[in-house]
């Protein structure tokens, strides 16, 4: 697997570049909801609908979370863009022996309260019009194996154009407290209920 190797130069340069690029491509970026700070590491569950998703998180991390961002992406994609590892990306190769190593690595990251780990349990790109979402099961090893206390946050990205030539990005966030002896379905059902609520709120903007 390819581990994250944060480098201040890459984070500074590409972070600025991404923020400028987003200002050019999006009319507005708005954040809805709040997350109560607990001093724990963050396991952030998001929807995966675009090439932008990890870069969105860089901006949201700075504005809201204030943690060191780690994002799990497919190894074939990270191999093509190794500079992303310098910004917090780490890899997983599905259906391989190294996948367990990647999941254990992500779980260990949650033992540090200064970290946030962003996951897309769908495991693939899907339109944000897709609902409900289906989560792959293997990712659950991460919260199950984490030894330190961590906080779960749901995050959803939605875009709309309305009467403008550029889209608006709306980011919705909320805390989630998993039940004891949680299963994949607990996360999947709760996230789909959260996403449905986000879509309802988005429709009110039209």
Explain the overall architecture.
With 206 residues, this protein is of the alpha/beta class. It has one domain: Glycerol-3-phosphate (1)-acyltransferase (3-Layer(aba) Sandwich). It contains 6 helices and 7 strands, in the order αββαβαβαβαββα. Strands 1-7-6-2-5-3-4 form a 7-stranded mixed β-sheet, with helices on both faces. β6 (150-160) and β7 (168-176) form a beta hairpin. It is globular, with a radius of gyration of 16 Å. The chain starts with 7 loop residues before the first helix and ends with a helix. The mean pLDDT is 91.
Largest sheet: spatial strand order? 1-7-6-2-5-3-4
CA-based shape? globular
Q: How many DSSP E strands?
A: 7
Helix-strand pattern:
HEEHEHEHEHEEH
Residue-averaged pLDDT: 91
CATH superfamily: Glycerol-3-phosphate (1)-acyltransferase
Poorly predicted runs:
none
Q: Which architecture would the CATH scheme give at its second level? A: 3-Layer(aba) Sandwich
CATH domain topology: Glycerol-3-phosphate (1)-acyltransferase
- The number of helices is 6
- What share of the residues does DSSP label as strand, in percent? 15-25%
CATH class term: Alpha Beta
Overall tally of structural domains: 1
Please give the radius of gyration in angstroms. Answer: 16 Å
Distance between the termini: 44 Å
Structural class: alpha/beta
């Amino acid at each position: 697997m390819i581990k994250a190797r944060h480098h201040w130069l890459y984070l500074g340069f590409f972070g600025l570049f991404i923020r400028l690029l987003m200002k050019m491509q999006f009319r507005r970026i708005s954040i809805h909801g709040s997350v109560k700070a607990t001093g724990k590491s963050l396991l952030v569950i998001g929807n995966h609908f675009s090439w932008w998703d990890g870069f969105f998180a860089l901006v949201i991390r700075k504005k809201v979370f204030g943690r060191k961002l780690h994002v799990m992406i497919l190894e074939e994609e990270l191999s093509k863009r190794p500079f992303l590892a310098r910004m917090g990306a780490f890899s997983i190769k599905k259906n391989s022996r190294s996948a367990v190593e990647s999941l254990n690595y992500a779980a260990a990251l949650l033992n540090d309260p200064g970290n946030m780990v962003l996951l897309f349990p769908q495991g693939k790109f899907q339109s944000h019009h897709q609902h409900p979402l289906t989560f792959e099961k293997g990712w659950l090893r991460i919260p199950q194996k984490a030894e330190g206390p961590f906080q779960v946050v749901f995050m959803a990205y939605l875009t709309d154009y309305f009467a403008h030539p550029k889209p608006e990005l709306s980011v919705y966030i909320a805390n989630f407290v998993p039940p004891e002896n949680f299963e994949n379905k607990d996360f999947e059902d709760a996230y789909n209920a959260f996403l449905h609520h986000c879509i309802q709120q988005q429709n009110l903007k039209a």
